[in-house]
């Protein structure tokens, strides 16, 4: 296996200043002429050969300055020697062909439903032509597309359209020019039968821009939300960071065959339909929210990623962590109220703690700036994206909102148009804020980039009544991760408050500090252990720690039920308030698991506290929904050393049933107050009401199903049939399916019938059935049956993810079977997908990351399944890397 290492980075031996590409598009055989102006990077030496990357290409001809050139092939690379030793430019022309319709990898140039698309990040451009396919080689592109006019009326590439016209034999052409230098991974083309929603906007600076959202004919009415999200993103980046749209034309194009969410190609973003199309009849509130955040994310990349890009792929988080931070802030600002912002923050934290913390604790653990990889596509991870965003957020916390904006401005002053590193970014933020804690602690702070794993922080408080002091002792530890045994202390901002037992905020003044006391502050933990003593504390306080989740750490503190209750009832910070409910629930669940107790009971004190939240007229519905949600099975598994997924499921289901029963009257009242959701708008407030109504209906249906009462299941079925939007309809359907009520068997075929022509809704239909609660092992056979459904197609990533991942990743109790059949299914699908689409296969391979933590008999079965995949002869390097690391 070939391992790429960060320490081996060398600047490129050549630069490619301009690229002129001419495509003769044909699904079976596309011809590509690539004419480059190349010059030696003499700073890197005078002797090196030019080594161009290529993959799956048929090479026809190579010309240097118009003359046939001698070259050799080495390991897939095209190698040219005898080139000028100085930096005088020369022209290099390469003729190749490729087969887009055979490209099931969906990397490079491929077709989807008769339309051509490209995906070049990370290393797809080399599947289009031979090139220096690395992000630090930036060029100006001019692209001519030629194709049959009837089949491919729309021809798009990056930048501006400079010419178009007819050719012979019913063909036509379009010529595009992108004035901005860019790395090859940002190249894109699209050709097909598409229609566009268009809008012209006038930016703050008076410049006019044309915005277009291209989709297949028939999908046009589902593009309004994407267009509005794009307009909002443009306005937001101007206001918040002073960053303007730099192109005359900005295009978004949707495809239903895509390996990921979307791609930020300069001026021509390509999107998975899932993150463009939204109508109230077919998309849920969550879908609407995702469209907004992904449209924002890709748009924000135009500056953070495209104008300033990565020097090498180890710096991926430079653009991804920062851009996730930006899209999170955008969504929060769009959500409006403080409470809605907090809800978004809690959702982001929940994702991070459930999935990124698991990654940090497993065989794929890697730093935000990795040191090595076998396949870069395996490193588009939660660590790079979500933890990377948390690192940026901590900088933001340490320098403040204004300081952060100054830092971003300096970052663009220094590096616009360049390919740079994470160090460059951190240095710019620090240099713009010379007096900040970040600057004082910068070298140590940057350990967040170099150390893998999640720090654990132990907090203990000591109240001294005589002295009227409260001492908070914070201890941090970081466990070894693969390849990193010695860890050093991190810089951990801990935002906190102190509460009295009746919930009042206590002013905080540190010993020896002259500053007036404040009600909230941020301590910076930078040593292995530190104690902070607060003075003039009149009573033993309840600490509210890590407010807003101020650092991506696991916090351990021994709060008793009464203290948790104080926080849940009174804390001014919605995050810690929510967290109190989760800590409490988690303790109840884990105690029951450890005691081997299958019929645990919810303590009345806990249900009463939840009841208070549910009935509090001052709290937003969305927040209530989060508090009333028990920690997921995956999150609970994270907290346990040896995992028996069946036990987790049994205990959690038992408690869920009790929550449904104990609060039945509250759920009814909640339903009565929230179920009439009125005219549909996808804003945060109404979405929250729909979510809470959906939760109430699910709880009432669940309770009736056990109590054999037909009223609520009947209401759920009625709601399912009558609902005027997908959120209410799908929540009602889910309520029946999750209660395993017989009416689900009536509703599911009806749902299919209603939406048989809506691919994204069918994905939901498959996913819901795959993630239904298991009864005596009946879900796996059902999934296997669904694999044979005429609407199932393993080659379509969305469909494969909905059914297969819906089972392996979203249904732990059905997947982890005592007979190991779930793992055998997993192995079969990894092997099948490996032959079709290595990236999707590698994602699926990761479903077994945590296998070493499993209890027997699960663990032995898991190992057998992993070994079977490992023994395959034709394993892609994507899948091989994941499986090797899992077994290491
Ligand atoms: N930059 C792309 C992801 C590319 C993934 C390549 N395997 C989307 C995004 O983060 O915006
Ligand atoms: Zn991104």
TrEMBL record:
**Peptidase M1 alanyl aminopeptidase Ig-like fold domain location:** 453-557
Question: EC no.?
Answer: 3.4.11.2
For the keyword Nucleotide-binding, the answer is no
Query: What are its GO biological-process terms?
Result: proteolysis
SUPFAM superfamilies the UniProt entry points to? Leukotriene A4 hydrolase N-terminal domain (SSF63737), Metalloproteases ('zincins'), catalytic domain (SSF55486)
Q: Which UniProt keywords apply?
A: Aminopeptidase, Hydrolase, Metal-binding, Metalloprotease, Protease, Zinc
Q: Which cofactor does it need?
A: Zn(2+)
Sequence ranges assigned to domain Aminopeptidase N-like N-terminal in this UniProt record: 21-186
Q: Which reaction does it catalyse?
A: Release of an N-terminal amino acid, Xaa-|-Yaa- from a peptide, amide or arylamide. Xaa is preferably Ala, but may be most amino acids including Pro (slow action). When a terminal hydrophobic residue is followed by a prolyl residue, the two may be released as an intact Xaa-Pro dipeptide
Recorded GO terms, molecular function? alanyl aminopeptidase activity; metallopeptidase activity; zinc ion binding
Pfam families in the record: DUF3458, DUF3458_C, Peptidase_M1, Peptidase_M1_N
Ranges of residues in domain Peptidase M1 membrane alanine aminopeptidase: 226-440
List residues of the Peptidase M1 alanyl aminopeptidase C-terminal domain: 561-888
List the InterPro entries hit by this protein, alphabetically: Aminopeptidase_N-like_N, Aminopeptidase_N-like_N_sf, PepN_Ig-like_sf, Peptidase_M1, Peptidase_M1_dom, Peptidase_M1_pepN, Peptidase_M1_pepN_C, Peptidase_M1_pepN_C_sf
* Cross-referenced NCBIfam families: pepN_proteo
Function per UniProt: Aminopeptidase N is involved in the degradation of intracellular peptides generated by protein breakdown during normal growth as well as in response to nutrient starvation.
Similarity comment: Belongs to the peptidase M1 family.
What is the name of the protein in this document?
A: Aminopeptidase N
Q: Which organism is it from?
A: Lampropedia puyangensis
């Amino acid at each position: 296996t070939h391992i790429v290492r960060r320490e081996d980075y060398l600047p490129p031996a050549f630069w490619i200043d301009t690229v002129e590409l001419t495509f003769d598009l044909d699904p079976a055989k596309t011809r590509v002429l690539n004419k480059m102006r190349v010059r030696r990077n003499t700073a890197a030496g005078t002797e090196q050969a030019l080594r161009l990357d290529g993959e799956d290409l048929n090479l026809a001809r190579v010309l240097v300055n118009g003359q046939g050139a001698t070259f050799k092939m080495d390991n897939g690379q095209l190698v040219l020697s005898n080139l000028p030793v100085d930096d005088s430019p020369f022209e290099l022309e390469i003729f190749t062909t490729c087969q887009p319709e055979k490209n099931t990898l969906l990397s490079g140039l491929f077709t989807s439903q008769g339309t051509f698309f490209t995906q070049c990040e990370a290393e797809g451009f080399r599947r289009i032509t031979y090139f220096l396919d690395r992000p630090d080689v930036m060029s100006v592109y001019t692209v001519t597309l030629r194709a049959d006019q009837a089949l491919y009326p729309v021809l798009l590439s990056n930048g501006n359209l400079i010419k178009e016209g007819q050719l012979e034999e019913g063909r036509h052409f379009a010529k595009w020019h992108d004035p901005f230098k860019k790395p090859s991974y940002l190249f894109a083309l699209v050709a097909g039968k598409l229609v566009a929603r268009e809008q012209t906007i006038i930016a703050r600076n008076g410049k006019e821009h044309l915005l277009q959202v291209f989709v297949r004919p028939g999908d046009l009415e589902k593009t309004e939300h994407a267009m509005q999200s794009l307009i909002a993103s443009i306005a937001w980046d101007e206001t918040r960071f002073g960053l303007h749209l730099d192109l005359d034309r900005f295009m978004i194009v949707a495809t239903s065959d895509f390996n990921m969410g979307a791609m930020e190609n300069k001026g021509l973003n390509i999107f998975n339909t899932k993150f463009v199309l939204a109508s109230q009849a077919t998309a849920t509130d969550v879908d609407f929210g995702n469209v907004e955040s992904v449209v924002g994310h890709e748009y924000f990349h135009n500056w953070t990623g495209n104008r300033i890009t990565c020097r090498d792929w180890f710096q991926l988080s430079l653009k991804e962590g920062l851009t996730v931070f930006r899209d999170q802030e955008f969504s929060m600002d769009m959500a409006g109220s403080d409470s809605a912002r907090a809800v978004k923050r809690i959702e982001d934290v929940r994702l991070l703690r459930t999935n990124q913390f698991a990654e940090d604790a497993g065989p794929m653990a890697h730093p935000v700036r990795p040191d090595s990889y076998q396949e870069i596509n395996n490193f588009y991870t939660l660590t790079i994206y979500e933890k990377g965003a948390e690192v940026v957020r901590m900088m933001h916390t340490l320098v403040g909102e204004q300081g952060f904006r100054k830092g971003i401005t300096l970052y663009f002053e220094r590096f616009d148009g360049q390919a740079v590193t994470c160090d460059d970014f951190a240095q710019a933020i620090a240099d713009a804020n010379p007096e900040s804690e970040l600057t004082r602690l910068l070298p140590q702070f940057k350990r967040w980039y170099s150390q893998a794993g999640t720090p654990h922080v132990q907090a203990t408080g000591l109240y001294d009544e005589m002295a009227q002091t409260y001492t908070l002792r914070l201890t941090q530890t970081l466990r070894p991760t693969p390849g990193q045994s010695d860890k050093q202390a991190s810089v951990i901002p801990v935002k906190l408050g102190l509460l009295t037992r009746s919930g009042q905020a206590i002013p905080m003044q540190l010993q020896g500090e002259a500053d007036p006391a404040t009600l909230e502050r941020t301590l910076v933990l930078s040593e292995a252990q530190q104690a902070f003593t607060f003075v003039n504390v009149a009573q033993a306080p309840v600490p509210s720690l890590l407010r807003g989740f101020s650092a991506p750490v696991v916090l351990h503190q021994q709060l008793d039920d009464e203290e948790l209750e104080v926080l849940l009832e009174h804390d001014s910070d919605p995050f810690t308030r929510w967290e109190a409910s989760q800590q409490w629930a988690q303790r109840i669940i884990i105690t029951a698991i450890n005691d081997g107790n299958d019929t645990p009971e919810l303590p009345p004190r806990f249900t009463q506290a939840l009841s208070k939240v549910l009935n509090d007229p001052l709290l937003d519905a969305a927040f209530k929904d989060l508090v009333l949600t028990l920690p997921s099975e995956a999150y609970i598994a994270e907290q346990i050393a040896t995992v028996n997924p069946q036990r987790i499921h049994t205990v959690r289901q038992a408690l869920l049933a009790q929550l449904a029963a104990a609060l039945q009257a509250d759920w009814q009242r909640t339903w009565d107050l929230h179920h009439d959701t009125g005219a549909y708008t996808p804003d945060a407030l109404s979405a929250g009401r729909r979510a809470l109504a959906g939760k109430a209906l699910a709880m009432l249906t669940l309770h009736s199903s056990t109590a054999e009462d037909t009223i609520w299941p009947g209401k759920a079925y009625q709601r399912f049939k009558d609902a005027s939007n997908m959120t209410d309809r799908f929540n009602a359907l889910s309520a029946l399916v999750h209660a395993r009520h017989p009416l689900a068997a009536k509703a599911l075929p009806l749902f299919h019938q209603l939406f048989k022509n809506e691919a994204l809704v069918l994905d939901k239909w498959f996913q819901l059935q795959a993630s239904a609660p298991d009864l005596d092992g009946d879900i796996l056979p059902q999934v296997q049956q669904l694999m044979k459904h005429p609407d199932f197609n393993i080659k379509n990533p969305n469909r494969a993810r909905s059914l297969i991942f819906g089972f392996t990743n979203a249904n732990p109790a059905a997947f982890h079977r005592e007979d190991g059949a779930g793992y055998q299914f997993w192995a079969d699908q990894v092997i099948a997908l490996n032959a079709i689409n290595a990236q999707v296969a590698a994602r699926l391979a990761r479903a077994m990351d945590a296998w070493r933590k499993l209890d027997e008999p699960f663990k032995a079965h898991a190992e057998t399944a992993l070994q079977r995949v490992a023994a395959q002869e034709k394993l892609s390097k994507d899948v091989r890397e994941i499986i090797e690391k899992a077994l290491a």
